[in-house]
Amino acid sequence: MKTYARRAALALSMAAVIASSACSEHQDLTGPGGNGEVVEIEIRNFEFSQPDLTIEPGTTVRWINTTSNFHTVTPDGHSAWNQWQTTGMGETFEVTLGDAGIYPYYCLPHRALGMTGTITVE
Q1: pLDDT in tens, 67-115
Q2: How far is CA 49 from CA 70, 85, 89, in A?
Q3: What is the dihedral of CA 30, 54, 41, 102, to 10 degrees?
Q4: What is the pTM of this model?
Q5: Radius of gyration of the chain (CA)
Q6: I need a surface site. Which of 46, 57, 61, 78 has the fewest CB within 10 A?
Q7: Structural domain tally of the chain?
Q8: Where in the sequence is the domain holding 71, given as residue range(s)?
């Protein structure tokens, strides 16, 4: 019985490590390092809380899933970041955008519902 309990505890510990490492992802793909500023966009049901956002170069944008629904943050016509998928409440994804430009994105399964956004870096 003690061996079973140890194995169960080890399995739970490993699951917690894997889950915590999967909850947050950062991609810094577009130029110089960050300026320390972070702007958050909440994923709420079928919308992004700041669908039209203007930031300065080097700002980090962080998406936070506030639901337990499946969502994506999918680049629309650019490669500034890779598509991110989330199904867990509290999961985050962030990207630091260093190059001036317009970065449209959408949620793949909810695009037809208008779940789109644009980040302008200037």
Answers
A1: 999 999 999 999 999 999 999 999 999 999 999 999 999 999 999 999 9
A2: 16, 17, 15
A3: -50
A4: 0.75
A5: 17
A6: 78
A7: 1
A8: 24-121
